[in-house]
Amino acid sequence: MTFKAPDSLAEQIAHHLAERIISGELKPAERIQELKVTQALNVSRGSVREALLILERRHLVDILPRRGAQVSELSEHKVRSLCALMGEMYIMLGDAVAQRWKTEADLAPFLIIQGRLQTSFERQDINAFVEDSFNVMRAAYPFANNPYLQETIENLQPAMNRTYYLALEQRKASMSEYLALFGRLLQAVSARDPQLIRKVLGEYCQRSCELVLSALAVR
């Protein structure tokens, strides 16, 4: 495998390993051996160590004394905690867009993403669906104009990505529920209705949490 700019080598290695964790190829509690990764990717051991530290910050890997790195495990407590936190941050972003959009053109990126989500649903393309679910947040960043909020979400995004992938892999039909909720969210944002935004996003996060916990129960 060959890695190139613009991302740093460690970031690219971290992204490669994150994809394997998110897809379930690397299982919870499975060890990630630096030497094997170094040999498989033809990169330096130092870059692999840096990549693992990145993944630790993103809650995909635990680095244990004298035992090295292993894929972090998902528990009910972790899932509920993550969903609760992300829910509040989603609401902050939704409120920011509702307060600051000025013309229909400001909302156009969200309508484009909605169209892509519909296409992914029709194709049952989980990877594209999950990716565009997070692109919704990225489209909202300029309205919030909060670098701390953006950095926190980006660091938590791989962990959320992992839970979404797990839930949708178990129940692909749930993609239609997400689509319907997103449609309601766009209506709430367009109407500048903060109470409805909180209600819709609360339902969205609660449903996501239920799906993930249900998927964990049958693993």
Which helices and strands, and how do they pair?
Blueprint: H1 9-22, E1 31-32, H2 34-41, H3 45-57, E2 61-64, E3 68-71, H4 76-100, H5 104-123, H6 126-144, H7 147-170, H8 174-190, H9 194-217
Antiparallel strand pairs: 1-3, 2-3
Helix pairs in contact: 1-3, 2-3, 4-6, 4-7, 4-8, 4-9, 5-6, 5-8, 6-7, 7-9, 8-9
Keywords:
75% helix, 3-stranded antiparallel β-sheet, 219 residues, Four Helix Bundle (Hemerythrin (Met), subunit A), mainly alpha
Structure explained in plain terms:
The protein is mainly α. The protein folds into 2 domains: 9-71, Arc Repressor Mutant, subunit A, CATH 1.10.10.10; 76-217, Up-down Bundle (Four Helix Bundle (Hemerythrin (Met), subunit A)), CATH 1.20.120. It is 75% helix and 5% strand. It is built from 9 helices and 3 strands, in the order H-E-H-H-E-E-H-H-H-H-H-H. Strands 1-3-2 form a 3-stranded antiparallel beta sheet. The radius of gyration is 18 Å and the shape is globular.
Structural class: mainly alpha
Mean pLDDT: 90
Question: What amount of the residues lies in strands?
Answer: under 5%
Please give the domain count.
2
> CATH first level of the largest domain: which class?
Mainly Alpha
Helix content: over 70%
Specify the biggest β-sheet. Answer: 3 strands, antiparallel
